[in-house]
User: What shape does this take?
Amino acid sequence: MTRAMVRASRLAIGAIACAAIGAASAGPAAADGAPSLAAFAGGWTRVRVEEDEAQRISAIRAAIAGLSWITRQFAGPILESTTSPPRGYEFALDDTRLLMAPRGEPLRPLPLDGSADSSEGPRGTFTRRARLVDGAIETRWEQSEATGVNVFRLDDEGTLVIDHTIHVTGLEGVETIQYRARFRRAPDVASSGR
Assistant: This one.
């Protein structure tokens, strides 16, 4: 199966799941006016906003300002690299579950009940806990050298906004890093003929 076929299948599964879930996910907003899970379904492409990128770099520099010069020379580029937002995200609905992954990675279920979900990666074990908060998806995560919170929300224009808060635990003296990344809906592969 080609990537386009896989993506189209995921989007179709998401659409079918939306219908099956009923009123809670059938429209772009839930009864309380907050977006439903269906509003997140699909592909999202990163929007490079200079202000957001400048804020991320500034937050990193401020976080490491109290470190020695030599430590800053090593820590700065590593933090800039590891905090760089992915080029996109994919969300899908499978029955009543939300599946999510950075673009290019396999979709994984994202339990929204606060239970732990762990996976192994290049930096060791990555554990996350997610829940819905006022129409946003809040994920609390931890790995061997950092912990953090990512809040995924849709703004009034339909842009996916992710607010990141990171606490580096692998290096003493690093302050909290906070920054934002934005994503727009990716073109629908099925309808574009790709």
The two ends are 13 Å apart (CA to CA).
